[in-house]
Amino acid sequence: MPNRLSGLLGAASLAGVITMTNAPISHADTPLVIAAETGDAPGVARLIAEGAQINARDRRKRTALLAATHANQVETARLLIEAGADVNAKDDIEDSPYLYAGARGHLEILKMTLAHGADLKSTNRYLGTALIPAAERGHVETVRTLIGAGVDVDHVNRLGWTALLEAILLSDGGPRHQDIVKLLVDAGADVNLADLDQVTPLQHARQRGYSEIVAILEQAGAR
Question: In DSSP terms, which residues pair with 18 in a beta bridge?
Fold first, then answer.
């Protein structure tokens, strides 16, 4: 892949080339974005050395770092971050490298963004922090990492849901989400913070028959 891409980097038109995320590349995509998303670390290093604009955007307003994060390309992300890429730069749907890495459980990239100025208060298009989708999707180590970094465990998104609520409402109640509920409770999450309909986490867990989560919440004083 890197060899084929290196021959394409200077081409005038890149229409028809397909990235590793199956999104079509158009002439609007910069060579740096393409190299980053397809994991061409030598190409990224060369383009940076040649003075490529590190935070240039593609047609979706993605930086090269966000494109690398989409494809979980750790090495190209590392090169870009070390060269000063903005870990908080958002695209046209309000994703940033930090937010996307957290939401998708791309743990290595997430840790790099946290070490290079990630804005813990930044929010996605649902006005949620990185912690909320991480909890919903069952990314246990990501949740642990975000809690350790200091993300607000009781942040409420525009749907009226916290990370704790999403770990119950949008899960199967299995072991990963049980672990996440325990992590959130241990981190001081408000176990009685209800949704917009005033239904509490405990009530939701009971309605779904999530007995293990019910026990965790009851032990924490939920009602």
Answer: 24
Q: Give the model confidence (pLDDT) of 33-56 as tens digits.
A: 999 999 999 999 999 999 999 999
Letter for the amino acid at 40? Answer: D
Say how many residues make up the chain.
223
Distance CA 35, CA 41 (A): 7
Task: Provide the CB-side half-sphere exposure for 15 (13 A, CA).
Answer: 2
pTM for the model: 0.87
Residue 35 identity: A
CA torsion through residues 63, 69, 70, 71, sign? positive
User: Can you tell me which residue has the tokens 């325990």?
Assistant: 182
82 Cβ contact partners less than 8 Å away, ≥ 6 residues apart: none
Domains of the chain are 1-119 (1.25.40.20), 130-223 (1.25.40.20)
The candidate with the shortest Cα–Cα distance to 192, out of 172, 217, 170, 171, is 217
Span 189-201, pLDDT tens digits: 999 999 999 999 9
Contact 133, 150 (CB under 8 A): no
